[in-house]
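Reopening: structure tokens for the zinc ion complex, inputs below.
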Amino acid sequence: MPEGHTIHRLARDLSSAFAGRAPRVTSPQGRFADGAALLDGAVLESADAWGKHLFVDFAGERRLHVHLGLIGRFTVTSVPEGEPEPPARGQVRLRLADAGSVADLRGPIVCATRTPDEVAEVIARQGPDPLRAEADPDRAWAMVRRGRRSVAELLMDQKVLAGVGNVYRSEVLFRHRVGPMHPGQRIKRQTWEAIWEDLVRLMPLGVASGRILTVKEQVDRVEAQLARGVQPCPGPRRYYAYKRTGQECLRCGSTIRTAVVAGRNLFWCANCQRRT
Ligand SMILES: [Zn+2]
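Re-run output (same inputs, fresh job):
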């Protein structure tokens, strides 16, 4: 499932392709024909993300709400000047098209028009999002500190924390050597604050590079590249724990384990990760 950095990057790409313009909005597949007709021809004001939810604001208080779910994809492609709009391929639920850009949405679990009040209701059900400047980590802490569920489970709950998914949870718990099965109520406040601050540091690198970066050398390299204003170039995909079942821990050499927690495979090193 795409994690929050993917949705924020998508919001950024949609804004840069369409903001201030009035794209044609269609549903080539037909399942969103009524919604598309409501948005078609209206000026697209901006796109924004909250956790894994994408909201696109159109003039006249019309809002598009998208959640990609497990298999959804929303791709923005540029169309060279003078070339015709490419035909929609496959099951395209929604297409935004304008001279220069086409965006196709396939396979979302949510694609709906909303009023501003309905958008506010969706947002009110989300925990703080580490990618949003105004996010309040204490709201998440209030749920973690009285949580009977494991910290690995709490990190996946979008009401606790918005945007974190399976990769970031495994990796951030490894980075802070936190035992993933400890219940939230055993987690120390300073541990939680360190996890939050780390997500605030790491997730923007995901937005900038389009990749989840957690391994120290890659994080340091991409931060330096961004500071110099050059295109981030992280190198091969690497993780500390995620999908490394049976391999040696990069820190201690123990075997990385896996177990299903909150419906998804968690990966961790039982030797390194003991902290509360
Ligand atoms: Zn280890």
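The first helix runs from residue 4 to 18. Residues 173 and 248 are 17 Å apart (CA to CA). Marking as resolved unless the reporter disagrees.
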